[in-house]
Amino acid sequence: MITHDVRVYPESERLPRAGQLAWKIAEVAADAVEVEPAVAEMIINRVIDNASVAMAAINRHPVTSARDQALAHARPGGATVFGLGPDMRVHAEWAAWANGTAVRELDYHDTFLAADYSHPGDNIPPILAVAQQCGADGRALLRGLATGYEIQVNLVRAICLHKHKIDHVAHLGPSAAAGIGTLLGLPTEVIYQSVQQALHVTTATRQSRKGEISSWKAFAPSHAGKLAVEAVDRAMRGEGAPSPIYEGEDSVIAWMLDGKAAHYLVPLPGASEPKRAILDTYTKEHSAEYQSQALIDLAFRMGRKVDQWEDVESILISTSHHTHYVIGTGSNDPQKFDPTASRETLDHSIMYIVAVALQDGAWHHVRSYLPERAQRPDTVALWRKISTVEDPDWTTRYHAEDPALKAFGGRIEIRMKDGRVIADELAVANAHSLGATPWARPDYIRKFRTLTEGVLDSAEVSRFLQVAESLPSLKAHELPELTLALPKGALGVGETRGIF
C-alpha cells in the first residue's frame, strides 16, 4: 500500500493532476490486476448478503416507491430490478436506485468502520446494474466490485466525514464511479473525471441520520449510486468535472471537511497490487446499526442473569466515541427514547436495542421493531434506565489498526436495586472474523434462506444461489440471472403516483 498525503492547495500553488487524490484513485481503478480467490469468495458472500436483505425488504414502502420509479424508465437490454426477474429491464441508473434502496432499507448488510462509517455493499447495486446493461461478464464484475470496496474502505480509513456532519455516502460516490471504471476498462482520464463528478454531487449533510430518521436513510446510498452511474456516463462522453475536487481551495476538504490546514493520509494499493480491502469488512448477523452487533450478543447472555426487570435500577453502557455520540445518549436525540419513533430511529438507538435484546434474548428484523414491541410498558421502563458513556479505551480500540485490538463493542453494567451489579463486556460480534462464531459461506446462505422464507419459491432460492456461486465464470448473457423474482402477484405496488 502507498500512503498519500492529501491537503488543500491554493490556486497560486495549483496541484498537478498526477498528484491529486482523484487521479490516484483513478490509477488504482485502471490497474488491471486480477482478483485473488479469497476476495472473489467474499464478493460472492456479499452478493448473496445483499440479495438476502433486499428480499426481506422487498415490499416495504420506500423499496416499493423506488421500484415503481425505476419501472417508469424501462429499457430493453438494460439492468434488472430485484423482485422482477431477469426479463424486466430498466435503465442502469434506475436499477441502481431501486436495488440500492432495497439493499439499504433494513440496515442489515455489510459494514466497515474506521475514521468514518460505511456500508461498502452499497457499491454492488450500481456496479452490477452497469455490468448488466453494458454486457460485462462475471470476471469483469468481480474486478469492478473489488475496486468499489477498495476505494471506499480506504477513504473511510483516512477521511472522517461525520465530525463535519457530512453523510458517509460522500465516499460512496467516488468508489462506485471507480468501480464502474474498472468494470468497463475505462482509461485513467475518464475515471478521474467520473470520480470528481461523483464526489461533487454526492456531498450532503448527516441530517438524514439525526433526529427523526426518515426513509431517506435508505434512499441516500442508492441516490449516490445513481449519481455515480450518471457521472461515469458524462465522463465517457468527454465531459469534465470540478478539479481538483478534494484539494482545491474552494472544494470539499477546504470548506466541508478539515479546512485549509487539513492533512489526510490516504492508503491506496500500488501498481499491480491486489485489491483486498473487502476482506477487512464485516456483515451483520442482526438487523441493527453495526455498533450494536456485539452489544446485542452481549445482552443475550446477560439477560439470562436478570429475573425481574423491575428490579433493575440502571444500566450503563461504556463504549466508543462513535457509538456513544451516534446511537447512544451522547447524540442528545430525545427520539432515541420515543416508543412511537420510526424503525429507522429505533435501529439507531442502542438504548432501545439493548433493552429488547436483554428481555428477548433474540433479535428479529421485523418483530423487534414492531410498534407493539417498542411500546410494551416494561420495555419502555427498562429502556429509559439505559445510558451510554464514552470510554477512551473503547474509542482507542475502535480506531486501532491492529485487527487483534480493533473493537466495536463495549461493557454493560446492570445495577440492581438491591445493590448487586451484573457486568460483562464483548469486543466484537460473534459473527465477526475474530468473533466466537465467525461467518463463512454457509452462514451467508443461511441468512439468505431465512430472510427469503415465505418470500421466494424454493426453486428460485436454489437457482439464485447457484448463479451467485458461479459469479466468476458467468458469461455476459448470464449476468442478468443475478437477480430474483417473486411469485406472481406477490410484488407490492405503490398506492400513490408521483411524476414518473
Notable characteristics:
alpha+beta; four-stranded mixed β-sheet; 2-methylcitrate dehydratase PrpD; 2 domains; 60s Ribosomal Protein L30, Chain: A; 500 residues; two-stranded antiparallel ribbon; 10 strands; globular; 10% strand
According to CATH, the homologous superfamily of the largest domain is 2-methylcitrate dehydratase PrpD
What is the CA-based Rg, rounded? 22 Å
Tally of separate domains: 2
Sheet having the most strands: 4 strands, mixed
Unreliable residue stretches: none
Describe it for me?
- InterPro entries: MmgE/PrpD_sf (IPR036148), MmgE/PrpD_sf_1 (IPR042183), MmgE/PrpD_sf_2 (IPR042188), MmgE_PrpD (IPR005656), MmgE_PrpD_C (IPR045337), MmgE_PrpD_N (IPR045336).
- GO terms for molecular function: lyase activity.
- Monomer.
- This is MmgE/PrpD family protein.
- Residues 20-262 form the MmgE/PrpD N-terminal domain.
- The protein has helices at residues 21-30, 37-56, 61-71, 92-104, 124-134, 138-158, 172-184, 188-201, 216-236, 252-256, 293-303, 321-327, 343-346, 350-360, 371-374, 377-383, 392-398, 441-452, 458-469; strands at residues 2-6, 74-80, 89-90, 112-113, 117-118, 264-268, 312-319, 386-390, 410-416, 421-426.
- The chain is built from 19 helices and 10 strands.
- Strand 4 and strand 5 (117-118) form a beta hairpin.
- It is 43% helix and 10% strand.
- Helix 2 packs across helix 4 (92-104) and helix 14 (350-360) packs across helix 16 (377-383).
- The radius of gyration is 22 Å and the shape is globular.
- It has 2 domains: 2-280, 2-methylcitrate dehydratase PrpD (Orthogonal Bundle), CATH 1.10.4100.10; 290-426, 60s Ribosomal Protein L30, Chain: A (2-Layer Sandwich), CATH 3.30.1330.
- The mean pLDDT is 95.
- By secondary structure, the protein is of the alpha+beta class.
- Strands 8-7-9-10 form a 4-stranded mixed beta sheet. Strands 1-6 form a two-stranded antiparallel ribbon. A two-stranded antiparallel ribbon has the order 2-3.
